[in-house]
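Lab notebook, bench 4. The sequencing result for the construct came back, and we need a structural model before the next group meeting so we can plan mutations. Quick request posted to the team channel:

Model the 3D structure of this chain.
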Amino acid sequence: MSGSEEEEYEVEQVLDERMEDNEEGVKVKHYRIRWKGFGSDDDTWEPKDNLDCADLISNFEAKAQKEKEEKKARKREQKENVRKEENKEDSFAPAKKVKSESSIFDRGLKAEKICGATEKSGELQFLIKWKDSEETDLVLAKEANLRIPQVVIKFYEERIRWQKEAALMDQD
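Done. Here's the predicted structure in token form:
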């Protein structure tokens, strides 16, 4: 180093991880970092070796592993429920499945947008994309209406189509 010391920043939160090639072409794990005193616009991707926050990395990895396992369990449960529904004449969703979907919001994830909608088991469901994540989940529309009404309204507003001719005919 030159005569001056390099300024050291404090890590506030580890947000994400990915693998990147280093100068030698070797895959190295990088973490998306939120720096203390800075906003999301200043988040950066840093190699693990540049970071001095083993506890935050460990907490992030434990949380990420737990979320990964929960997502696998939800997908497995959804597949099982679909199989069960195919074998039943009744089309209502089991209470266990509804609990699983409503607990998605209890994990602290924030909805970024609704990607689409579908009808499943006679009920409208939204495919929701979460902020700071590549994950999407199917959520009952009535749960989304209660938990994220502004996101639901935005979804509908983006898709509404006015039929001018039909409106003019109704006036006659």
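The first strand starts at residue 11 and ends at 21.
Will bring this to the meeting.
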